[in-house]
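step=predict obj=Malate dehydrogenase n=309
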Amino acid sequence: MKVTVVGAGNVGATCADVLAYREVANEIVLVDIKEGFAEGKALDIWQKAPIDLYDSRTIGATNDYSKSAGSDVVVITSGLPRKPGMSRDDLIGTNAGIVKSVTENVVKHSPNAIIIVVSNPLDVMTYQAHLTSKFPRTRVIGMAGILDTARYRAFLAEALNVSPKDIQAILMGGHGDTMVPLPRYTTVAGIPVTELIDKDKLNAILERTKVGGGELVKLMGTSAWYAPGSAAAQMVEAIVKDQRRVFPACIKLEGEYGINDCYLGVPVILGKNGVEKVIELDLNSEEKALLEASRKAVKEVMDVLQKLG
Ligand SMILES: NC(=O)c1ccc[n+]([C@@H]2O[C@H](COP(=O)([O-])OP(=O)(O)OC[C@H]3O[C@@H](n4cnc5c(N)ncnc54)[C@H](O)[C@@H]3O)[C@@H](O)[C@H]2O)c1
């Protein structure tokens, strides 16, 4: 199996490192536009192999996509991250151009790949990659839901003083302040979370989750990478090993949840063909209204992209 990660910055290098460490693919290619950067990161990860005992090979390339040829999965992390005070949507002008040119190269050299988009604004960059690649929608998937859900699960584990391993949850919608929390689908080892935590505390955790990315941007001056890199690697693993894992992921909706032509996070089954199935939950009226607000917010940014041409 061969996996390429485009963008050898914070998120891309972390993703490649997790993929190598977990031996998800035997060949992992890192590509970046900055001269020597991907080569250096790939060499550093390879030199960790004798210490951490893995045999996945990591190879770096400066803008040379021939090295990535025939990849089974390509993760796109190239693009600017947020700085304090910026919203994800502020990145659209620069990152749309980057994602477009990267996708053109991916299609040329890996026409059968499954693309996982990480660059922000996530839902609209997934749209950009889908438009450019012309791949079926099941092969162009955005990563945000695993990260947002992980943040929520981590906050809950802390509040309840239990292992994060035992918290199961799903969030939906766009990657931003309009994400759709679904507390009635959250359990702690099968116990509904609502039986273990009072409503106000749970609401405070959900509000913190919505701005979880911003909290880290404020602390570090740039956006997060450990959890995002691992989240992208987890999606790659589900595809490469045909695990049929159930995750929230961004995909173009074609009638599911009564929504058409919009890219939103929904629960999906991930396997060797990419999205094997979109799972449709029976949302209540409050959840439907939140999803509609999320759809509108994403659609507005999709329109901005269209105007940019
Ligand atoms: N979806 C999510 O949940 C999520 C989470 C965190 C970060 N992000 C996004 O991921 C992206 C990367 O974040 P980061 O922290 O790794 O940033 P970073 O600045 O550390 O890395 C980005 C890399 O992309 C490279 N790059 C730029 N243009 C390129 C091109 N045309 N071809 C190849 N490489 C190119 C840069 O040289 C840089 O090394 C940002 O857009 C960020 O907002 C998304």
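step=describe
The chain is about 45% helix and 20% strand.
step=end
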